[in-house]
From TrEMBL:
MF-aspect GO terms: dTDP-4-amino-4,6-dideoxygalactose transaminase activity
Domain of life: Bacteria
InterPro entries membership: DegT/StrS_aminotransferase, PyrdxlP-dep_Trfase, PyrdxlP-dep_Trfase_major, PyrdxlP-dep_Trfase_small
Family (UniProt): Belongs to the DegT/DnrJ/EryC1 family.
Keywords per UniProt: Aminotransferase, Pyridoxal phosphate, Transferase
Enzyme class, first EC level, given as a word: transferase
Protein name, entry field: dTDP-4-amino-4,6-dideoxygalactose transaminase
SUPFAM superfamilies membership: PLP-dependent transferases
Organism of provenance: Rhodococcus zopfii
The protein's required cofactors: pyridoxal 5'-phosphate
Record EC number: 2.6.1.59
Length: 379
């Protein structure tokens, strides 16, 4: 058996990237908001059906924009999942808000509405939800809580471009949605992101926040004759160089997604017998959701067996990492957050989760090697 190293992730290369980059470099416009930004934004709006979208320099900066748009400040509380990426929390903490950590549903790794309900207070302003692996969270439960308590739902949809919950595109169900185009994500431009929203008033402010607090976007459209400092803001717009790569990737979105689903489906078809014999839980997708094949995870009964499986796969040249140190137990989470109810399922998930390699260029031979390796391991 071949033991060439199989990478966990390999950033996709789209055919049109170099031609697009050359076009930007040959033009006199490589700063933000040029033709490739407009083109990529239109493609994103087509995929997500979002009435408004703005490209940003990262998902993190889109989340920071959400914190500014919501005018969060000291005394406000934002509920975030314990099992999450740091940006989900630090973007809110940056505004002075307190992160309140809630637990997850161990079947999906997603925020559990019952855990959210248990930590809502009169100071709760927002809930940030992740669609882990591109599988939608339980949005009916979260929408009900948000409506009932006047809380804003923000979707950190870094994993879920093109995913759906009951037919609705992820990133457009909450008031604000964010996307990541980091090179570990399905579609990428090295570093990049986007903010999605349906509200025109929020969009007007978001344009200002993204352009250093100025109404430059209106000036460029000719609706004001000079631009000036209007509001808080920062520099959240990406260069045309990034937009050029993103635009080329979005042209191949369907190809990228079918390549990823091919690998995901192969794992889902090949692993159930082994999983049942070994008390391993596999990733599942509830029937009312269309996932994005962003990742394929499995969970072992114990941390010791998880670490043993990672070592075993590494010995066969296969990278299979775990992730997300629970935010509530992290140094900054302890300082900037609150955990009214222990997030025991998040901690258990973090100790037992493992992700298999998943990218469109994996060959069927490599996928077979991964499946053979996993299924010869006695958990
Ligand atoms: C990758 C990721 C982010 C951060 O994305 P950037 O574009 O690198 O800022 C935020 N949230 C989640 C869930 C992520 O996976």
């Amino acid at each position: 058996m071949s033991t060439d190293r199989i990478l966990f992730n390999r950033p996709y290369r789209a055919r049109g990237e170099l031609a697009n980059l050359e076009a930007v470099l040959a033009s006199d416009h490589s700063h933000g908001d040029g033709p490739f930004t407009a083109s990529a934004t239109a493609k994103l709006r087509a995929i997500t059906e979002a009435p408004h979208a703005l490209l940003t320099t990262s998902c993190t900066s889109a989340l920071e924009m959400a914190g500014l748009l919501l005018e969060l400040g000291p005394g406000d509380e934002v509920i975030v999942p314990s099992f999450a990426f740091t940006s989900t929390a630090t973007s809110m903490a940056l505004r002075g808000a307190t992160c309140v950590f809630a637990d997850i549903d161990p079947a999906t790794g997603n925020l559990d509405p019952a855990s959210v309900a248990a930590v809502i207070t009169p100071r709760t302003r927002a809930v940030v939800v992740i669609h882990y692996g591109g599988v939608a969270a339980d949005m009916s439960g979260l929408l009900e809580l948000a409506d009932g308590h006047g809380i804003v739902l923000v979707e950190d949809n870094a994993h879920g471009l093109g995913g759906r919950w009951r037919g609705r595109p992820l990133g457009t169900i909450g008031t604000l949605g964010t996307l990541s185009f980091h090179d570990t994500k399905n579609v990428h431009c090295g570093e990049g992101g986007a903010l999605l929203m349906s509200d025109r008033i929020l969009m007007d402010r978001a344009e200002i926040i993204r352009e250093k607090g100025t109404d430059r976007a209106r000036f460029l459209r000719g609706t004001v004759d000079k631009y000036s400092w209007q509001d808080l803001g920062s520099s959240y717009l990406p260069s045309e160089l990034n937009a050029a790569v993103l635009d080329a990737q979005l042209d191949e979105f369907d190809l990228i997604q079918s390549g990823r689903h091919r690998v995901w489906d192969a794992y889902a078809a090949a692993l159930p017998d082994w999983a049942a014999r070994n008390d391993v839980r596999l990733m599942t997708v509830p029937p009312d959701r269309e996932h994005t094949a962003h990742l394929y995870f499995l969970r072992t009964p114990t941390e010791e067996r998880r670490d043993a499986l990672i070592r075993y796969l590494a010995g066969l040249g296969i990278a299979a990492p775990f992730h997300y140190v629970p935010l509530d137990s992290s140094p900054a989470g302890l300082k900037l957050g609150r955990t009214p109810v222990p997030c025991v399922r998040s901690h258990e998930f973090s100790r037992t989760v493992l992700r298999l390699p998943l990218w469109p260029g994996l060959t069927d031979e490599q996928v077979s090697r991964i499946v053979d390796a996993v299924t010869t391991f006695r958990v």
